[in-house]
Specification:
single chain; 611 residues; alpha/beta; 2 domains; six-stranded mixed sheet; 21 helices; elongated; binds adenosine-5'-triphosphate; binds magnesium ion
Length: 611
């Protein structure tokens, strides 16, 4: 799907608003045109600029009888009819025309509001939808996706890129539609008013604008160069100052000075050229403008003399011309923003388009009553190129506690993350009760697993909801039971609002041990048959360590547990210990057996557990 197709699928929902917005923008353009047309009657009838007004044959008012210029005479006739219908006399026309101007202007403001609001509505609506679907998509993605796209990048996509799209739609799209329609109407009017003069302008104005644009480009280029030269200077000074001993020792003062002087000379030259451009730009631009304007005056004067055009007609023409400046200026800006936001859309789209790696297989089944017997069968895994797990096989029988130990970076966390399918192994498979976990639905698989992660994740919500996270029923009795078993009840009750205290709100700082016990309470409340514990390495004081340890004991009771152990106490209560090193299981056995050997475990034990 192309970028436009992608955007289209979101805009489709807002088709009525799009219709509204475009229609209002069209009316805005027409109203702007009407204002320009009204300039002539203002000068002709209200200010009476044309000396022999009644005999004049070329003003808008007189154009009612004009056969040559049909559109102009139609407009003039229409205008005359309105005046006749309303009974506007020679005297009351002084009031009528300004009132008409007010009416048209008010209408123009109204449709401007409607079109601007409609575009805002579309912009905000579409970007809200895109934000939501992007976030949904991100939540569904595997850990491998999150490893490749750090949270900062995702935040920037959701916050900045989409905000960029929103400004583009909300403000620039208004300009794009409204101003290009206005420009169209004004251009048509300009040519209808006075075709030959319009042609002259069509060629004359670019000639005047050309030097302005060139000056702008030249100045940007020199200012860039000047900055570069400045950076050269800074580097030289830096080198000379830092290396002053070397410079002196080698007698290079003169050489360094000459190097610097030639750099300042280059800097000077660039800056002088910038000054030339700078001082020249205003005079040149002004002179060109005056020459252009004078040429226009000569042409107009001749036309007025030969009665092709009236003075009021010329004023109307000038107004028309001046009013075209605003749309051109705005449209000029639109381009840049649209380009930037299209790039943003492309980035967002590429993220949304990434396939979801971990999803239910077509005929995935709900896990039946489980024994919770887990087997990793020669699983290999790599986040990027480097292989993190190499053919790891490990069995955890029902009700068993297996401790995983190993040096930092050995792949312990990675291994346990395969069980809830945060990612799938590149080869090999993980089985529960002999069935490949990929044959189960994700939902039923994850319902089986209680998880306490290495870095405790708490959400900005009440304590109660943090403990009951993901559970449909939030029964306070059971929450308190879980908290009590996790040795958390006591400190929770001391919080300002007890279980209804919002965590993460300013001023509430839980200690590391308290956070861990909350996470344990969460796993207890979930009451899942399989438990994954990634023990935190954070240094707890002896007392909270003891509390956390007791809470963990309660948690492991009667569950099949895979625990990544950093504490001696945990290792000792494990039924079996597997030692992981550089992605391989290198030793396996009971604490005492492993200690008797002279392997990695012995070394780790000496290093880690013996202070
Ligand atoms: N998200 C990730 N993206 C890329 N590489 C990763 C990612 N997470 C871990 N790794 C790499 O995988 C290897 C194993 O990491 P893992 O977190 O499994 O180690 P660990 O045994 O749990 O270590 P620790 O005891 O410090 O928690 C490390 O080399 C690490 O750099
Ligand atoms: Mg880890």
């Amino acid at each position: 799907m192309s970028v436009l197709g992608f955007l289209g699928s979101y805009f489709r929902r807002y088709w009525l608003w799009v219709l509204f917005a475009v229609a209002a923008a069209g009316l805005f353009a027409v109203a702007t045109g009407a204002l320009v047309v009204l300039i002539e009657p203002v000068f002709e009838e209200v200010l009476q600029t044309n000396p022999a007004e009644h005999e004049q044959t070329s003003g808008l008012v007189a154009a009612a009888g004009d056969k040559g210029n049909t559109v102009r005479s139609t407009v003039a006739r229409l205008y005359q009819q309105v005046k006749d219908r309303l009974g506007v006399t020679e005297k009351s026309v002084v009031f009528f025309v300004p009132l008409l101007v007010i009416a048209v202007f008010t209408f123009r403001s109204l449709v401007a509001f409607i079109s601007s609001y409609s575009f805002q509505h579309i912009g905000l609506g579409v970007t809200t939808d895109i934000r939501n679907s992007l976030y949904r998509r991100i939540l569904e993605q595997s850990s491998r996706f999150h490893a490749r796209h750090p949270s900062g990048e995702l935040t920037s996509r959701i916050v900045n890129d989409i905000a960029m799209m929103q400004t583009a739609v909300s403000t620039r799209a208004v300009d794009l539609v409204q101003q290009s329609l206005t420009l169209l109407v004004l251009t048509v009017l300009l040519f209808l008013n006075n075709p030959s003069l319009a042609f002259v302008c069509a060629f004359g104005i670019p000639a005047v604008l050309f030097p302005i644009v060139r000056f702008g480009q030249g100045m940007r280029k020199t200012s860039y160069k000047s900055q570069e030269r400045m950076a050269d200077l800074a580097n030289l000074v830096g080198e000379g100052a830092r290396g002053h001993r070397v410079v002196k020792a080698f007698g290079m003062e003169d050489f360094e000075y000459r190097r610097f002087a030639s750099a300042t000379r280059r800097h000077l030259r660039v800056n002088l050229w910038a000054s030339v451009l700078n001082s020249l730009s205003s005079p040149v631009i002004e002179t060109m403008s005056v020459v252009g304007l004078s040429g226009l005056l000569v042409y107009a004067g001749l036309q007025i003399r030969s009665e092709v055009m009236s003075a009021s007609g010329f004023i109307g023409f000038l107004f028309n011309l001046v009013w075209m400046y605003e749309p051109i200026r705005k449209l000029n800006k639109v381009n840049l923003v649209i380009q930037q936001s299209l790039a943003a859309v492309r980035r967002v789209k590429s993220l949304i388009d990434l396939p979801i790696e971990i999803a239910d297989r077509p005929n995935a089944q709900v896990i039946p009553n489980v024994e919770a017997d887990i087997a990793f069968e020669s699983v290999s895994f790599a986040y990027t190129e480097q292989v993190v797990l190499k053919e790891v096989s490990l069995r955890i029988h029902k009700g068993e506690v297996v401790a995983l130990v190993g040096p930092s970076g050995a792949g312990k966390s990675t291994l346990v993350n395969l069980l809830p399918r945060f990612f799938d192994p590149d080869s090999g498979c993980v089985r529960i009760d002999g069935i490949d976990i990929r044959d189960f639905t994700l939902e039923s698989l994850r319902r089986l697993i209680g998880l306490v992660t290495q870095d405790t994740v708490l959400f900005n919500d009440t304590v109660r909801n943090n403990i009951a996270y993901g559970q449909e029923t939030v029964a306070l009795e059971r929450i308190r039971e879980a908290a009590a078993a996790a040795y958390a009840d006591e400190f929770i009750m001391r919080l300002p609002q007890g279980y209804d205290t919002v965590i993460g709100e300013s001023g509430l700082h839980l200690s590391g041990g308290q956070r861990q016990r909350l996470a344990i309470a969460r796993a207890l409340y979930k009451d899942a048959p399989i438990l994954i514990l990634d023990e935190a390495t954070s240094q707890l004081d002896a007392e909270s360590e003891a509390l956390v340890q007791k809470a963990l004991m309660n948690l492991m009771e009667g569950r099949t547990t895979l625990v990544i152990a950093h504490r001696l106490a945990t290792v000792q209560i494990a039924d079996r210990i597997a030692v992981l090193d550089a992605g391989r299981v290198v030793e396996e056995g009971k604490h005492r057996e492993l200690l008797a050997g002279e392997g990695i475990y012995k070394r780790l034990y000496d290093l880690q557990f013996q202070e």
